[in-house]
């Protein structure tokens, strides 16, 4: 076994949670080269992996929006790079048309993908010469590890290893101060995944009482407005400036605590071994959540809004050094 290509094109959280497949493969086959094909929008994240040998990318998402000639030329150029090596195996752990096309264009006699019922788009099956076994009864992240191990013939062993190294910032992402910093990722791609702003404000006030400073990143004008509403009710809270993906990752790396909804940056916080609480309102924590004993935890049932008290209990679980709230404040939080 000399060279393997992993295809996982998008999105940020899914790519983060797929990275342990690289460590699994390299543990099973010492000396093997592992390449990764991703959309250009997420390629810098894959570059942070210390296990990936070559990152292949193209502006697929951008071209879909712009249809610019320059982006099409970049895609054609990426195909030549994709075909520069012959792979022993291509492992498509995405399972949609665009990932299947990448797998088909790459040079290999062994292209492995999901069974038809497990594909995101069933037409993707045209690209594969072999299939993973039936999707196991586990969360999506461990399922990717199991699928890759079945294809290559090794056993998954131990906790996931993300092996990420975020670039050192030129300027410190957070000001020097004694207070521990808690980042709130309140924004999501869908409204039904949001935790109420009132809950965020109440949680921020409780953490301020504990001595935390709350910071609020954002990615759109609407998210910035919501962050401002939360910050206005939380003593010492700061709405951060617009930041790149790398800058957000550097900020996360400098934080003591991350609380957020089911979004990619909260998955990244978990992968960077930060104390992390992920809040689920409309998606499944059993399928898409994070968990590491006393470090990362998911709350909610995916069908209703978790109460403030659940978030506070989760913070106690992942951040054991945080001072306890006064009894009267905890009682008030439990009633929320």
UniProtKB/TrEMBL annotation:
It is an enzyme of class 2 (transferase). It catalyses: an alpha-Kdo-(2->4)-alpha-Kdo-(2->6)-lipid A + ADP-L-glycero-beta-D-manno-heptose = an L-alpha-D-Hep-(1->5)-[alpha-Kdo-(2->4)]-alpha-Kdo-(2->6)-lipid A + ADP + H(+). Keywords: Cell inner membrane, Cell membrane, Glycosyltransferase, Lipopolysaccharide biosynthesis, Membrane, Transferase. It is found in: Cell inner membrane. Its EC number is 2.4.99.23. The keyword Kinase does not apply. PANTHER family: LIPOPOLYSACCHARIDE HEPTOSYLTRANSFERASE 1, TETRAACYLDISACCHARIDE 4'-KINASE-RELATED. Belongs to the glycosyltransferase 9 family. This is Lipopolysaccharide heptosyltransferase 1. It comes from Paraburkholderia sejongensis. The gene is waaC.
């Amino acid at each position: 076994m000399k060279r393997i290509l992993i295809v996982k094109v998008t999105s940020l959280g899914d790519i983060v949670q797929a990275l342990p497949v690289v460590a699994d493969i390299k543990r099973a086959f010492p000396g093997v080269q592992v390449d990764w094909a991703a959309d250009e929008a997420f390629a810098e994240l894959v570059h942070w992996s210390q296990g990936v040998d070559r990152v292949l990318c193209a502006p697929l998402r951008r071209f879909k929006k712009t249809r610019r000639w320059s982006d099409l030329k970049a895609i054609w150029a990426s195909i030549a790079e994709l075909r520069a090596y012959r792979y022993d195996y291509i492992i498509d752990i995405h399972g949609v048309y665009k990932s299947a096309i990448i797998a088909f264009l790459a040079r290999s006699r062994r292209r492995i993908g999901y069974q038809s019922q497990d594909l995101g788009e069933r037409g993707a099956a045209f690209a594969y010469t072999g299939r993973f076994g039936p999707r196991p009864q586990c969360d999506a992240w461990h399922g990717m590890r199991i699928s890759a191990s079945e294809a290559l013939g090794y056993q998954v062993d131990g906790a996931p290893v993300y092996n990420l190294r975020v670039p050192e910032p030129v300027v410190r992402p957070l000001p020097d101060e004694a207070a521990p910093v808690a980042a709130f990722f309140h924004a999501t791609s869908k409204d039904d995944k949001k935790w109420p702003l009132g809950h965020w404000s109440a949680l921020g006030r409780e953490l301020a009482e504990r001595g935390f400073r709350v910071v609020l990143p954002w990615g759109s004008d609407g998210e910035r407005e919501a962050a401002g509403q939360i910050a206005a009710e939380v003593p010492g809270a700061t709405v951060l400036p617009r930041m790149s993906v790398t800058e957000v990752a550097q900020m996360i790396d400098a934080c003591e605590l991350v609380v957020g909804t089911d979004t990619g940056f909260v998955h990244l916080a978990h992968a960077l071994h930060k104390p992390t609480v992920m809040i689920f309102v409309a998606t499944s924590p059993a399928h898409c959540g994070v968990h590491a004993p006393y470090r990362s935890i998911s709350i909610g049932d995916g069908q209703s809004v978790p109460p403030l008290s659940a978030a506070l209990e989760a913070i106690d679980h992942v951040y054991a050094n945080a001072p306890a709230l006064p009894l009267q404040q905890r009682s008030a939080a439990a009633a929320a």
